[in-house]
Specification:
This protein is α/β, with parallel strands linked by helices. The protein has two domains: 2-71, no CATH class; 73-260, Rossmann fold (3-Layer(aba) Sandwich), CATH 3.40.50.2020. It contains ten helices and seven strands. It has helices at residues 2-16, 38-46, 67-72, 78-90, 109-119, 123-140, 156-162, 166-178, 201-208, 236-247, and strands at 97-103, 148-151, 181-182, 187-189, 212-214, 225-232, 253-260. The strands form two sheets. The protein has a five-stranded parallel beta sheet, sandwiched between helices. The protein binds zinc ion.
């Protein structure tokens, strides 16, 4: 260990000229660790970590996303969330509340981050952003009376193709803050659906209809549920999953996502 420290110290000296630092810095912007791990700096020399949005090297104090990109992402403020809730969920009466972290903008940083999270095995970004979403839920909703967190499930074929469900990792991050039961087994996606991106709302609703099935009603009945997805666009997916949960006897169903889109 002494040798390792010596190597790190020399690498550090050559890099920064400031000598060996025992760092305990709090940095305001970004998903940034409070305590900078000296080993992270060491490994970054050999295997640099890359920001998925701008492809630049991450600094040792940055985790997953660089602070420049993170600062460019548009936060979803309460007025916007209220507006989107009215537009997407209010008339159906299934989802009783909504929280989102960011506003999705096409061809911008967040789109690239979400793409990386979903398709490039960068699922740990989901967990990191989930922690921020958990913080926001605690701040926004003073009476957090959820019993259960449920990630919107993927069809098993899509999951085996991708290797993971990104919404599960977001939920894991949220649950680090909320510390409830995270249930990824009670609801299944039984209908394979093709990408809905270009579909209008009516077509999406038809496409997603009957896509979910509760397989463990005992764990759902009477519970207030926090349903988690990566991006909420028309709200058709979350509403359909929520409808299945409600029909089986769930209590209140609340939706949360990393991003909200038009
Ligand atoms: Zn970046």
């Amino acid at each position: 260990m002494g040798d390792l420290r010596f190597i790190i110290q020399n690498k550090q000296n050559s890099l920064t000229g400031k000598g060996f630092r025992f760092i305990n810095t709090v940095i305001s912007a970004g998903i940034i660790k409070n305590k900078i791990n000296i080993l992270t700096e060491f490994f970054d020399l050999f295997l640099p970590r890359i920001c998925p949005a701008c492809k630049n090297k991450l600094e040792s104090k940055e985790e997953y996303i660089c602070s420049t990109c993170l600062n460019k992402i548009l936060p979803a403020d309460n007025t916007r969330i209220k507006f989107e809730f009215q537009k997407k969920f209010n008339s159906k009466g299934i989802i009783s509340g909504l929280t989102s972290l960011y506003v999705f903008e096409k061809d911008k940083e967040l789109q690239r981050i979400i793409h990386s999270m979903k398709y490039e095995n960068n699922f740990m970004i989901g967990e990191a952003l989930g922690i921020l979403l958990g913080d926001k839920l605690i701040k926004d909703i003073h009476e957090l009376n959820f019993d259960l967190i449920i990630p919107v499930p993927l069809h098993r074929l899509k999951k085996s193709e991708r290797g993971y469900n990104q919404s599960y990792y977001i939920s894991k991050g949220v649950n680090r803050k909320l510390k409830l039961e995270l249930d990824k087994r009670s609801v299944r996606r039984i209908k394979y659906t093709y990408t809905q991106t270009s579909m209008k709302i009516q077509k999406r609703e038809k496409n997603i209809s009957g896509a979910f099935k509760v397989v463990n009603a005992e764990n759902i009945a009477g519970k207030n549920i926090l349903l988690i997805d990566d991006v909420i666009t028309t709200g058709a997916t979350v509403s359909e999953c929520g409808r299945e949960l409600r029909d089986i006897g769930a209590g209140k169903i609340y939706a949360a996502s990393l991003a909200i889109a038009d």
